[in-house]
Write a structure and sequence with these properties.
Helix content is 32%, strand content 21%. By secondary structure, the protein is α/β, with parallel strands linked by helices. The strands form eight sheets. It has an eight-stranded mixed sheet, sandwiched between helices. The relative contact order is 0.11. Bound molecules: 5'-O-[(S)-ethoxy(hydroxy)phosphoryl]adenosine.
Length: 658
Amino acid sequence: MASQNIESVLHEERTFRPSADFVARARIGTARFDELRRHAAEDHSGFWARLAREELSWHTPFTVSLDESDAPNYRWFTDGRLNVSYNCLDVHLAKRGEKTAIVFEGESGEVRRLSYRELHAEVCRFANALKAQGVGHGDRVAIYMPLVPEIVIAMHACNRIGAIHSVVFGGFSAPALRDRIEDTGAKVLITADGGWRAGQVIELKAAADKALAGACSSIERVIVLKRTGRPVAMQPARDLWWEDAVAGCSRECAPVWVEAEHPLFLLYTSGSTGKPKGIQHSSGGYLLGAKVTTQWVFDLHEDDVYWCTADVGWVTGHSYVAYGPLALGATVVLYEGSPTFPDGGRFWKLCQDHRVSVFYTAPTAIRALMKLGDEVPGGYDLSRLRLLGSVGEPINPEAWVWYHRVIGGGRCPIVDTWWQTETGAILISPLPGVVATKPGSCTLPLPGIEADIVDERGESVTDPHTGGYLVVKKPWPAMLRTLWGDNDRYRVNYWGKFDDRYYVAGDSAHRDEDGYFWIMGRIDDVLNVSGHRLGTMEIESALVSHPRVAEAAVVGKPHDIKGESVFAYVVCRGNRPGGDASALMSELRDWVGEQLGAIAKPDHIRFADNLPKTRSGKIMRRLLRSIARGEDITQDVSTLENPAILDQLRGVEAPAGA
Ligand code: WTA
């Protein structure tokens, strides 16, 4: 395990306690926190069942809390029925129908507000439109859209009628979209003509057409939202404008009551093999997790304005934009564009203009904005902010302290939230009115979450300075149910390591003297670039699909802003490129961008005649990682089939093409 990581975080000993003002108003104080923890420890499933009864509105109440008969395929609240959009919209109409649910700002600055009543009406209208297209209970609907209110409307319209949505991040390219649609067997694709990002149009419809060309035979209909107004090609037999789809549709649509275990959505995430995993989430358990964690961790009050900057294409945008905050009746800010458009003050201007009080973003954004200097945020009124959050990767103490001092004015607690696409909701995080924070630590597991750190044999690691596998020892309601179409892979991937006893997150972590958790990073071959998981295998497959590439290996290299950058070793067909290396580098970078999306483009490419392999042909990635980092190789290289290759790999690296 990477001992250097352990060393570097251990130097951090500062502690920050929430202010008396914050504590006085916090929704969860010490007494309530202790009560929650005690109840969870005494009666794990009863604890969650009590919350499910208190927090969710059930059409048919459940009698079964947890069904373990198929463990580790755990099921929660199995005989209950409910509807998720009902729980996020209808329940608010009487008390806060006119309250703003969504404040949307487009990249060009236009602002649109939707009250809960308006959002409810739009969701119903679009749900009726989907029904008119033959979409019903259990059908899959792919969503490939910019970050505009209609993406949230589309998601809730799906769940209102029992359809299962699968959002594909708008920054992904056509082949990535195609693979995901094919895996889900979606009947309908919802997209837009395009979206705005950094002053440019992202051509979503064109990418969708490319994805569907000669593939995705399950798709019967493509619904296209007009966003940019730029001309796009429409296929009359297949494509339908959003505005035409909803024309004449009623603003009322009775919710379809589904079983608690009915899949709410599929969301693809990278694994250590080439094929992305379709994470399947439930309706009842997932919504409960999203709702209570939003309440506990973000301490939302009726007058808060909450902004989570994540795109809805990632899980953070599912749980902490589209579901949790709406279930709580919060006012949610949605911003379409880039954090630095037209300049590096955009996020802070948004906070000022919309009077944001709770702000949740990723370390990569914090580091990028920190680089621009304190004067940029200094030009805006950030005095409304009262709570800050971080998610996606470990936040380095320097960025944490800057976030606290410059953005939070020294008064806002920071919640560093650890979780995953698979966990559905935050599992480890401070409760802001209770737990003192330490820069770089996600602190303690939430009530009802039995997280632990174990060694190879599955024994708890108690030595505060030793790392181990981060595991969860008891099922929790928001956990993934399976991998779509591949339950074996679900069982092996997440439960196999310790004989089905523990959920294995795939992260390594250690605990300090106070029992605080410090996440050290991924154990498998998954990179974390700008807070997003990228499978090294996926990038490698993209590279070797280029006609000039024979073999490729990808590793992560620490990066100041992005957390990790993508470092690729490439073996060409025929001769190693000489003079034309930089041309080929930019060609390969663009190629990967086309296959997977810009986020996966290698930052560095090094050409070689071969890769270091064991005698059984396995690529020694650990060596490649050391070389990428410019470290001395201390590992035993005697098992290498071709040790001489190391000298060549260590050779001077030409910079990656622009
Ligand atoms: C990493 C994002 C440290 C971790 C919600 C995890 C973190 C992976 C944190 C999941 C954090 C997420 N501190 N590491 N606060 N939050 N991670 O599925 O490696 O995109 O396993 O979900 O991100 O990434 P995913």
